[in-house]
Amino acid sequence: MGTRPRGQRHWATALIAGGLAFGAPLLAAAQEAAGDPTVEVMAGACTFCHGPDGNGLGAATPSIAGLPVETFEYMMQSYREDMNPSTVMGRIARGYDDEQITALAVYFGDKPFERLPQPWIDQALVAEGKDLAAEYCESCHENEGRDGEGVGILAGQKLQYMRFSVADFLSGAREMERRQARKFRDLMDDHGPDGFEKILNYYASVK
Fold first, then answer.
1. What's the CA gap between 207 and 83, in Å, rounded?
2. Distance separating alpha carbons of residues 42 and 80, to the nearest angstrom
3. Does 140 show up as a binding residue in the annotation?
4. Residue 55: which CATH number?
5. pTM of the model
6. Is 176 annotated as a binding residue?
7. Domain boundary among 65, 87, 109
8. Residue 46 labeled ligand binder
9. Is 89 annotated as ligand-binding?
10. Where does heme c 1 bind (predicted)?
11. What digits encode the pLDDT tens for the residues 101-142?
């Protein structure tokens, strides 16, 4: 259920390591730019949908605060290149160059991920969802989904957004690496769609 297929994560990590001398100045410049009023203006446009400081308020718009820089960059680049299905994010992402995306990644990465109340969570599903998540998800989504390095933050993420993401993975609209695909297949075979729903309600409830 991660934001990034683990195979692509390994590819990205190798690429970054190989180009460290080239990429480090870009990140340093982005960190300096993150305090620039221009970056705050760009980030302000994001908060119209993603909420104050990147903490989304609705059920379907994800929180983007506190994400690792690499994860934020990957998501924006995948939207920009139409690797990730979207309604408006593809058009929005194409309006930013790599340096601007990195600056936004640093800006929002410095903001705390706030786990806001989600009254639409079905509390009756949470306990069983926790058990299923421990069996099918925890090996990648560690610390009850709080650790977002390479896979995105699931703990406290918006429920409807996670439903959309799972639907995209299951339909083939988003690519899964082999291990993730096997976990999804096993979960579907063992528990059907209800298993996913229980897990997602659990992760949305995590504080």
1. 31
2. 16
3. yes
4. 1.10.760.10
5. 0.78
6. no
7. 109
8. yes
9. yes
10. 46, 49-50, 89
11. 999 999 999 999 999 999 999 999 999 999 999 999 999 999
